[in-house]
Design goal:
The chain is mainly beta and 209 residues long. The protein has one helix at 46-52; strands spanning 31-39, 55-64, 68-72, 88-89, 95-97, 108-110, 115-116, 131-132, 136-137, 141-149, 155-163, 170-171, 180-182, 194-195, 200-208.
Length: 209
């Protein structure tokens, strides 16, 4: 008799679904967004109207807590054929040294000694998504524009934009884009990437008619 194909993920321990209780993949403890928009009025005075009218400034600031991560063994310790089996957490000191090394990396964001491979035939006890990666903020993005009226409905818009104006740096995750950290990897707990982009500036001219 044939077997039905299985699609998607299954429980790490099918006999104990509670073993996979944990945090949602999209969980963020804190998320903050702030926006600002200012536009100068149309002044009656001819000089002021020429110099100060039709200027606009907008800004966005975003910040959020780190992404949720799980520590996996990288091997099938339960002999079940199920992937992403988690390791055991053997210490509450799960985070390591958050200072950069000589190469500008976070070599030990996670404490390797706080985790262990489960005994053969067993599943891990660490909480699903129980680790929080580094937080992020976008360093303020700003746009400055000036609208210059021509004739009728025609005008020219001059615009300058700066993304991450302060060139702020936010570390990536030790999972390098994944939601799992492999206990068997020689790069365990090391962060060599960043979140977001460095400062980017762009200029634009738009003719409206």
């Amino acid at each position: 008799m044939g077997t039905a194909a299985q699609f998607g993920a299954t429980y790490t321990d099918p006999t104990n679904p509670d073993n996979d209780r944990g945090y949602c993949d999209q969980d963020r403890t804190h998320i903050a967004n702030a926006t600002l928009g200012i536009e100068t009025p149309q002044f009656a005075n001819a000089i002021l109207r020429t110099i100060a009218s039709n200027w606009g400034v907008s800004a966005i600031v975003s910040a959020r807590s780190g992404a949720r991560l799980s520590v996996i063994t990288g091997v099938d310790t339960a002999f079940s054929g199920i992937s992403n089996q988690r390791g055991n957490q053997v210490s509450d000191s799960i985070y390591g040294n958050t200072q950069e090394d000589a190469q500008g990396r976070l070599a030990n964001y996670l404490n390797r000694d706080a985790f262990a491979v489960p005994a053969p035939g067993t599943v891990g006890t660490s909480v699903r998504n129980g680790i929080v990666g580094p937080s992020y903020w976008n360093g303020i993005s700003v746009a400055l524009r000036r609208l210059i009226s021509l004739t009728g409905t025609q005008n020219i818009e001059l615009r300058i934009e700066a993304f991450n104006l302060l060139n702020s740096f936010s570390w990536g995750t030790p999972a390098a884009g994944s939601s799992t950290v492999n206990l068997a990897s020689g790069q365990f707990g090391r962060i060599t990437t960043q979140q977001g982009d460095p400062r980017i500036m762009q200029f634009g001219i738009k003719y409206n008619f």
